[in-house]
């Protein structure tokens, strides 16, 4: 239920504000460590279009592709967006495996969702030689994706709060790929010595997390959340 999943005691990801220049971003963060960016975009117009009522009115009958909430989320299920919102958008069951938990993140049909994404203001920074691709998601409290890695990207919270856990590429986290992030937080996280704990922080609406290439990361939605990522491929 909302509020039952705690925030971290202390955010250990560095923060930067709108005074961060592109050259400093490249020098300090782009290839070396994550950073939370505040005040670098204004997505109030996009946020207004992402209310439950507006999204259901615009996309209710369209199919969305759900993925399983495990590290290797290969299983896909297509359902009407309205069915997902009204019947599947629930708090995470702590006893349910990741392979049995369906989650709407990414796999967006750009023919249908493109008009919405046109209103999104992406972060102002890019990695040379990459191009951006959007991944939009909506998920219930306690849901999330367990540890995995891919190329660099940004993730912004539109509604709700999203807790992140990150490890550098040379420090593989201890986890089971079919265990949900919530189960990992309840069972494994408390056993970790301080030196083995991840970098972590909770993002709130309007905040953007940048993660470099090949950084391990897991996510946990503390509330029913709307979020959008910009992957740099």
From TrEMBL:
Domain annotation JmjC: ranges: 99-233
GO molecular function list: cis-regulatory region sequence-specific DNA binding
TM stretches of this protein: none
Pfam family, one: Cupin_8
Source domain of life: Eukaryota
GO cellular component: nucleus
Chain segments annotated as coiled-coil in the UniProt record: none
Protein name: JMJD8 protein
Source species of the chain: Sylvia atricapilla (blackcap)
């Amino acid at each position: 239920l909302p509020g039952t999943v705690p925030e971290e005691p202390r955010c250990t990801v560095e923060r930067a504000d709108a005074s961060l220049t592109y050259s400093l971003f490249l020098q300090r963060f782009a290839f070396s460590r994550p950073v939370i960016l505040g005040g670098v975009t204004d997505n109030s117009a996009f946020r207004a279009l992402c209310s439950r009522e507006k999204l259901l009115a615009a996309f209710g009958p369209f199919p969305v592709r759900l993925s399983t909430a495990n590290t290797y989320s290969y299983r896909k299920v297509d359902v009407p967006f309205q069915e997902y919102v009204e019947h599947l958008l629930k708090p995470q069951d702590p006893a349910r495996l990741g392979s049995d938990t369906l989650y709407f993140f990414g796999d967006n049909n750009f023919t249908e969702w493109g008009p919405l994404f046109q209103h999104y203001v992406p972060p102002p920074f890019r990695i040379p030689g990459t191009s951006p691709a959007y991944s939009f998601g909506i998920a219930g409290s306690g849901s999330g994706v367990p540890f995995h890695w891919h190329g660099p990207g940004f993730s912004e919270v539109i509604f709700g709060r999203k807790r992140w856990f990150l490890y550098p590429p040379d420090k593989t986290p201890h986890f089971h790929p079919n265990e949900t992030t919530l189960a990992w937080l309840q069972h494994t996280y408390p056993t970790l010595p301080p030196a083995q704990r991840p970098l972590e922080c909770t993002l709130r609406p309007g905040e953007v997390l940048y993660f470099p290439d090949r950084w391990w990361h897991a996510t946990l939605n503390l509330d029913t959340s709307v979020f959008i990522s910009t992957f740099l491929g």
